[in-house]
Fold each of these.
Amino acid sequence: MPIHRIRLRGFWEVTPLGDGRTRHVRRFGKPRTLDPGETAWVVGDAGPAVVFLNGEEVGRAEAGPFAFEVTARLQTRNELAIEGALGEVALEIRG
């Protein structure tokens, strides 16, 4: 089935954490109602990094690509935070 990819580009708030790491925060709206059988994933390239959605840790990434399923955690408005190195990040809707 096709994958719909929404790149999370644009403004990321960056805050130094004081231990050589940084926290990158990006807010976004829920893209649409998911059809039965569809799932939402935060995917990207980062690391090492810890990934949070709406204040809850969703996973830890070593250097390289990551993918974390977040369907049940999506709200109308969302806050994605990545503590550590940041590359390209997207929200994928998979069917």
Amino acid sequence: MWTTKDGRITKISDMDDRHLINSIRFLRSTVKGMKLRHELAGFFALNFVQGEMAELTIEHSLAQEAAMTDDEWLEYHTSYEDLIEEAKRRDIVMFIGAEFFRMLK
């Protein structure tokens, strides 16, 4: 499933090719900002939890996510992997961009 910027929910398989490609490009172009906001939220949460175990859990999660590549982070937190699989199924990955296409080889 994919949620559009106007809040509509659609099946990835029902997206047209242009929407699918643009969604993948969007996630790839915004991942660094999403990761930063997510990390800041984790640090912010540390101010409100009580107990050593709660703090350790958040800190462990932050460390795990900091070690993730952008693609791993997207696969864990978004529908990125499903979008990519659909693009592969349609044989349109070459339209996503040269950088991405090289990564698939």
Amino acid sequence: MHLIGGIDARRDPPNAAEAEDYYRRALELAKELGMRPLAAHCYLGLGRLSKHSGEPGKSGTHIETAAAMYRDMNMKLWLDRT
């Protein structure tokens, strides 16, 4: 679901509604299964999508959440990308 969300987000033009739906479904499942890295990736995807959709408030919140999760998990490469 995360991968499909990323594909929808990168279409030309982006399919923002579908991408957000897939990211949120993947996030819900990742939380349910305790898959913290995937959850962080979903937050990052949602943040980037919100930024490109012109919703900076949502974007900042999602990206800050992803960054905090990457920091907690010592995922420096992803933290740098965030």
Amino acid sequence: MSTVYISIGSNVDAQSNIRTAITALKKQFGPLTISTVYKNSAVGFEGDDFLNLVVGLDTNQTIPEFVDSLHHIEVEQGRSRDAEKFSSRTLDMDLLLYDDDIFESEKITIPRDEITKYAFVLQPLAELIPDYIHPTEKQKVSALWQTFKNSAEMIPVDLQL
């Protein structure tokens, strides 16, 4: 059994899409650890605000199998896999961490580099696992957040999940 952390974001019918994603993850994987949901501005393009959070869960799937499971949930929510990288999303789910593994393929890099690039990923991750040592940065996630420079306004949202 491996412990994984994923980021979830949406800016199209966001509350509904995030709730549906959480339900699908619980159904497939069981209990979840869920961060605060944060509202923040779109990054890299002009668009509606996003809701973002991080979820932890346990899985027996390999990294590629797990990523395929996430993609399946995204497509079920109307996500187009060929949309531009920086664009509105019904649902965006990215595998951030898979145990302490370092993994790289043509399609996947773990740990995901967005952890250290975006407040909407790092802040909720630090909330869930502050003492976790990032496999490549060799620092606690809480320390990465404390020294984070690209802080964007992150507004906590009370979304019952």
